[in-house]
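user: At home tonight, take the chain set out below, taking as long as you need, and be ready to discuss the fold:
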Amino acid sequence: MAQGENPLRHRNVRRMFNRIAPRYDLLNRLLSFRRDVAWRRAMLNHVPDRIDLRVLDLATGTGDVLIALDQARQPALSVGADVAEAMLALAQDKAARSALGGPSFARNDATALAFADGSFDAVTVAFGIRNVDDVPTALREMRRVLAPGGRAVILEFSVPTSRLFRPAYLVYLRHVLPRVGGLISGDRNAYHYLNRTIESFPCGEAFCALMNAAGFENAKAHPLTMGIATIYTGERNADE
């Protein structure tokens, strides 16, 4: 755990994701109208294209990113990390049932990664960076474990800026999503947490500024579906 991180919040977030793990995939598909599948596929288009690709997926959840990557690219090394044990158990089970079964999974904290400097060509995070207490430390850790020239690819929810679409989206986010998510998961607090963190988390250029401050180069935001989600990319200097 990084210096300055709130240990109580850290434990609560881990427990929350352990509780909702059995319904996590179902709710992702339902609440996003299956757009989460398309968003993850779009995310993989930003992962470097190389034969000997080494990938670390943080906040891996049930392993969707790495399983999709294994099926599309067959990387040389794919490792998923998460703090929630129940999520990792589901990820391992899904990977074992997949055609390739290549990814490996381990419990690890994004703010204190147990990997050597320069271990990976890409570090990915899908819908997990906003759940980290100390985002700047997590970004620095991501950059540290990237090889020179490696790339971070981060998929996260964001808030649309369109004057026409934004009000309707906020009604869905604040009122529909928490009720449906709470009803199906049996954990109303978890899905109220979801909408609060989406609205309060920096997005667009504000998140790119955080990546730049952590030492990434060429930080860019790639909005998806009218800005409901955004892919962020940034590179570690190839000359380091």
Observations:
- Strands lie at 54-58, 77-82, 104-107, 120-126, 146-157, 217-224, 229-235.
